[in-house]
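Troubleshooting entry. The earlier prediction with alpha-D-galactopyranose gave an output that would not parse, so I re-checked the input for stray whitespace and re-submitted. Clean input:
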Amino acid sequence: MKMLGIFLVASVSLVLVNGLENGLARTPPMGWMHWERFRCIIDCDLYPDDCVSEQLFRKMADLLVSEGYLAAGYEYIIVDDCWMSKHRDKEGRLQSDPIRFPSGIKALADYVHSKGLKFGLYEDYGNYTCKGYPGILGHLETDAKTFAEWDVDYVKLDGCYSDYNKLEEGYAEFGRLLNKTGRPMVYSCSWPAYQEPLGIHVSKDTWSNVTNILRWFSKNQNRIAAYAGPGHWNDPDMLIIGNYALSYEQSKAQMAIWAILAAPLIMSNDLRNIEPKFKEILLNKDIIAINQDPLGIQGLLVKTVKNIDIWIKPILPFTEGSYSYAVAFISNRVDGYAYRISVPLKDVGLNHTKGYRVEVSIYSPFTAYRSVKVL
Ligand code: GLA
């Protein structure tokens, strides 16, 4: 199987829809989140190095900085599920697990901030989180205030143990309460994943999970793409590059498509132990620049030839009355040969009369052609 990311240049118009605006996330958020790699490992006796604990997050914060991830744009460190005590305190406030987070969440946020990073935290719009810790229902205002007091910069709000018919309204209400605190926080909402019949929230460290997400995104692109733009993004879930499941080529494909989709680039891997070739993908400046393009347009699947998908995203610079474009080729083939396809640019909507200057990313092994050719 061969997956490629190739990027070139060209014009188009777009429609953007504005969400609740707090000035954050002008480009897709980038960071690290523990879930895909560290799940709900809470037995620190058995797994002292991998349990969900303040040490783990401090270490990952250190590595985000020392290994060049922050410099590449990965700035949020996000604590997912299983950070809490099973019980609220006497005032009904959330509290962290006393054994695994003895210094408390505010101290962890302070540490993260001291490294020049931003801090994210998980909760759930339900009676419980997906792993059975206290959800926010019945405590919305208190929890929004608590997050602000703890200096949280990013809230991931999951949707387990909730009434799916109330999610739309409930998430909006919590968003208003977060805004009311006066602290700008990125608000990452999982509710669409719970309402969609396909249930793309089943996150797993597998290639088929990545392709299922891609299939869902392409199938629904006409409905959802317009909702992406500065301040509000569609989230196909975490980057699992550097973990157990994805090959090198599959890892390149995930990074290329997440860039084209203007998706949040939230890694979930073990930064202590990541092969250089995977790290190189995650730090690839060309691909990150496509993802972070200021226009913030979500790319689309425009054509499939011989089971090879062609995805296109309008980007800057804007010249001769035309945007430029990033183009990615993703092969869905599993029959083991590096097939050739030849696609005239006009067939994928690139029909500027002056033609295009083609820049091929170092991401792909190909040199530049006048038209696009893929092996
Ligand atoms: C759901 C979400 C995951 C993760 C877990 C935590 O499955 O999709 O991303 O947050 O809950 O329990």
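This one parsed fine. The longest strand covers residues 308-319.
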